Amino acid sequence: MADRGSEGSDRRRIGVYVCHCGGNISDVVDVEAVAARAGADEDVVVAWHLQFMCSDEGQSTIEQDVRELGLDRVVVAACTPSLHETTFRRVVARAGLNPYLYQHANIREQVSWAHVHDQAAATEKAARLVEAAIAKAALLRELDEVRVDAVHRTLVVGGGVAGLRAALDLARWGMPVVLVERSNELGGHVLRLGRTYPTDEPGRALIERLVSQVRDEPLVEVRLSTEVCQVTGYVGDFHVGLRAVREETDGHPCDEEVEVGAIVVATGFRDHEPARGRYGFGHPRVVTLADYQRRLYAAEGEADPARALGIDGPVRAIAFLHCVGSRQVEGVDEPGASGRLNTYCSRVCCTATVRAAAETRRRFPAVRVVDVYRDIRTYARDQEQEYRRAGEAGVVFVRVPTDERATVEPAPREDPYPLLVRTRDTLTFGAELEVPVDLVVLATAMEPGPVEDLVAMTKAPTGADGFLLEVHPKLRPVESAIPGILLAGTARGPMDIAESTTSASAAAAKVATLLAGDQVEMEPFVARVDLSRCRGSGECVATCPYPGAVGLQDVELDEGVVVPRAYVNPVACKGCGACVAVCPNGAVDVQGWEMSQYLAMVDAITADPAGFPRAIDPSEVTTG
Amino acid sequence: MDLQAQTNARSTRILVLASLLCAYPGIDATGQAHLDYPANTYVLPTPDPVMFPESFYWHCFERGIDGILIASCGTDSPYEGSYERLAARINRVYRQMKERGLDIRRLRLTAICSVCTKAFVKEVGDLARVVEELGPVAAELARGPEPVGSESP
Fold first, then answer.
1. In a domain, B149, yes or no
2. Cα–Cα dist A329/A365, whole Å
């Protein structure tokens, strides 16, 4: 048996609880058999199967068993740990055990729901996963959360709508904020939007209202024309260098340093700029949707479309083209300056486009409007109404095959219209269309904002699309993998104003929770050095990507000899385990994910039902 | 008991080392979508597969794991440079596998995202087919590498 650490080497007293999940598990897995197999383990004191382990009854059963039977470890086999691992850790803690003496086995998402057609195999798999969980549980150690003194101030990077919202919310939570913005004014893209969805409030009005509220907040300190030039430290105590934006900033030292407990990144997005000539881009009669909206709403009372839109010549027909730079396909589209295809959907452009198309028809009824799309994704509540209204307003929809692209070309000089849009239309059974128009409006993609420098400084990861990457899109949508660095708004991906401000509020709430006390509390899943094994090779230091997370320090041995030994700074460690694999002496582990625990799980998975190892000893094999 | 009887007496087993932030929720999503994949697949979550040393893979093979699918975050890993380190390590394991006569197709390095359900089903299905074709790892380990110069002319 593997080393059981400081908790002693006597048999464990483990309680195992197998959940039916109201049939979700027990309709496929023989939970009684699984519990019986678990109960046969010498370390298991009690093994139950219950209808709903997460119910009050299930939780109180565990609590009662821990107290009355003296359990020292608990295993629950149920749904994915993403849902209820925290629930059961709390149960264990309420019962008086260290919450990290708990192990979860996932037998719903990864067994009963995946192997519904093979119940015997599903039961065997569930039993082995529970046995593996028991094997790991036996080796679990008591762990304590990592705590660090918290600086009660937050840096918000980016003064667009998300940054403003985050700063305002933080101030209202009582948190001092430093808000830095690279440009010389607050507001970002929204400032230049004609009308915003769904209220129709002009973008400038919306921003002015927010800015006024921010300016009235004494806790918010706004720094315009300022950029981040250095980030050191860790959650609770980041040291951030700031400097004034200059024409030549390369190599220019930081002007000042601010100390903050958390950083909210709200750096926004960039508008996609098509390659010159693509979709006619560069022609004076081809404009982006953002440009068109500015023109459309700038001259609200003007009835003449040419004068209103600032076009030199008659405006009788306009074509709107969707997905310009979005949902790009290899072999069909060309990569942009970043070298990658934007395979993602920019999400907000469909609604913005159909609204602009409908508004054009409402303002200028004589103008024909054609909407050229691949798919319409007016995805949020009530947005489908905008699509319907556009149709009712007389907008003509043309659907391009997904693997084809509409083209925009200058018309021959003798033609009455300056541009020709050519495409096939799947709505008319693939008919070849040639649409003469006076103006083409391109619904361009949202692309990642300029975050390269910030990424290099913070190590906050980006996804394949170039946007900053959240830990999980649903479960932890505003947290980056770096503790204390939160993501707000379109820095994380395309979203509309409502979504941006909601994510900003979520990020602010996360920060407020994080920095609420005198100390920041983090999960204890960080590296740990076993000094009895460490020989000071320094391999862990060399491989660790995070400055200050792992280091070597002199340690005096009993006989007075001073030797280098590794140490871990738990607040700087991200718990990736890169150091674990390279230690030649196996002296480093990630707490909660120790190598001995993995080996024990593998042994449990490969053991035959009688408990004997499954591997064949080559010396016993007769090959003749 | 001859080799064939010993090996046939046991079914094959596949281990999946699933990154907690990407592949693990992706494999959960596979179950949520009720997409089938071989039931001899055992998923172990890990903060990042970069944590496993070469010796871990050998422990698995020697204990009777017939195929290992590393379901990493790929280049989307939130940990800087981890995928490159992982890939380099797996290359070293491949070299060791060749030296010991183990088919390197038993170890598969993949990137599975948190919604990559079909990709997971494909990868684990492909590995299961390879393992089925090769048979239990123990037999291959017992045979050892081909003697030098044993190849047909």
1. no
2. 36
Residues A555/A574, Cβ–Cβ less than 8 Å: no
Question: Is residue A290 domain-shared with residue A436, that is, in the same domain?
Answer: yes
Cβ separation B3–A621 shorter than 8 A: yes
Residue A290 lies inside a defined structural domain of this protein: yes
Q: Which residues contact A585 (CB under 8 A, 6 or more apart)?
A: A533, A534, A535, A537
Burial category of A389 from C-beta neighbours within 10 Å (exposed 0-12, middle 13-18, buried 19 and up): middle
Number of separate domains in chain B: 1
Residue A264, CB half-sphere, CA atoms under 13 Å: how many? 44
3-class DSSP state for residue B97? helix
What does the pLDDT read at residue B148?
Answer: 66
Whether A464 sits inside 8 A of B76 (CB atoms) is yes
Q: Nearest C-alpha of chain B: how many angstroms from A603?
A: 7
Last residue of a domain, one of A520, A552, A571: A520
Residue span of the structural domain in which A120 resides: 1-143
Taking CB atoms and an 8 Å limit, are A623 and B3 in contact across chains?
A: yes
Judgement on whether residues A413 and A505 belong to the same structural domain of the protein: no
| ipTM for this model | 0.92
Cβ contact, residue pair A473, B141, below 8 Å? no
Q: What is the pLDDT of residue B1?
A: 36
CB pairs A-B closer than 8 Å: 177
- Quickly state the pLDDT bin for B81 (edges 50, 70, 90): confident
A135 and A114 both lie in a single domain: yes
Q: Is B138 a member of any domain?
A: yes
> Among partner residues B13, B50, B142, which is closest to A605 by beta-carbon distance?
B13
Residue contact A114–B53, C-beta within 8 A: no
In a domain, B23, yes or no: yes
CATH of the domain at B89: 3.40.50
The domain tally of chain A equals 3
pTM of the shown model: 0.72
pLDDT, average across residues B141-152: 72
Residues of A in contact with B45 (CB under 8 A): 81
Residue B2 lies in a domain: no
Q: What is the pLDDT of residues A413-438, one digit of tens each?
A: 899 999 999 999 999 999 999 999 99
Is residue A362 domain-shared with residue A414, that is, in the same domain? Answer: yes
Min distance B91 CA to chain A CA atoms (Å) = 14
- Please tell me the predicted confidence (pLDDT) of residue A338: 79
CB atoms within 10 A of CB A407: 14
What domain range is B41 assigned to?
11-143
Q: What is the mean pLDDT of residues A491-503?
A: 96
Nearest chain B residue (CA) to A480: B78
Q: Do A593 and B34 touch (CB under 8 A)?
A: no
Per residue in A139-172, pLDDT (tens digit) is 999 999 999 899 999 999 999 999 999 999 999 9
The H-assigned helical ranges of A377-464 are 383-392, 452-458
Q: Report the pLDDT value the prediction gives residue A558, as an integer from 0 to 100.
A: 81
pLDDT of A620 above 60: no
**Cβ contacts of A397 within 8 Å, gap of 6 or more:** A370, A371, A373, A376, A390, A391, A427
Cβ-based contacts of B142 with chain A (< 8 Å): 616, 618, 621, 623
* Nearest-CA distance A463 → chain B (Å): 5
Residue A590 lies in a domain: no
Residues B52 and B46 sit within 8 Å (Cβ to Cβ):
yes
In A531-540, which positions are buried (b, 16+ CB within 10 angstroms) versus exposed (e)?
Answer: eeebebbebb
**What is the pLDDT confidence band of residue A34, given thresholds at 50, 70 and 90?**
very high
pLDDT over 60 (residue A502): yes
- Residue A363 pLDDT > 80: yes
pLDDT tens-digit series, residues A255-270: 999 999 999 999 999 9
Answer yes or no: do A76 and A174 share one domain: no
Task: Please indicate whether, in this complex, the C-beta atoms of B46 and A577 are within 8 angstroms of each other.
Answer: yes
Pairwise CB contact (< 8 Å): A106 & B63: no
Partner residue opposite B32 with nearest CB, options A109, A132, A574: A109
